[in-house]
Amino acid sequence: MPQSLSNILIHLIWSTRDRHPWLEPSIRDKTHAFLAGAVRQCDCEAYQVGGPADHVHLAIRLARTTSVADLVKETKAASSKWLKTQGPQFNRFSWQLGYGAFSIGISQKESLIVYINNQEEHHRTRSFQDEYRDFLKKYGIACDERYVWD
Questions:
Q1: pLDDT in tens, 119-134
Q2: Beta-carbon contacts of residue 7 (< 8 Å; ≥ 6 apart)
Q3: Helix 25-41 to helix 68-83 angle, to the nearest 10 degrees?
Q4: Nearest residue to 120 via CA among 53, 59, 60
Q5: Residue 3 domain-assigned?
Q6: What residue numbers bound the domain in which 125 lies?
Q7: What is the pLDDT of residues 29-66, one digit of tens each?
Q8: pTM confidence score
Q9: Which CATH number is 73's domain given?
């Protein structure tokens, strides 16, 4: 086949370091927009970016020439650098070291977008840690929690 084609949809999740609530309402939408732009800079498509003050969810289409690890590394680095220019209160900002990447099917795309859009409501009754544990269980990923929460 002379042409390489793909449609790889990924749900990415990562938190701020120690789940500190850096992403207060005054900066949250701008941060989500910046993250979407950083994803596009990696030739990927950002369908939705959202989340509360201490973590983000991204629904993305991965470019066929980009690895998940490279995308996350570039997106976190660019957004962290950008956030630190948004005021002295962000001088110590950082993302957690790790991330979660979960594959989804095209039929799940719209429900993931709705899920991301409802993060504020969702986290009124559910912690980030419980949410993340549920994703790990749903996708059959075993982990040692001593190394998940930084």
A1: 988 888 888 888 888 8
A2: 61, 106
A3: 140
A4: 53
A5: no
A6: 8-147
A7: 999 999 999 999 999 999 999 999 999 999 999 999 99
A8: 0.92
A9: 3.30.70.1290
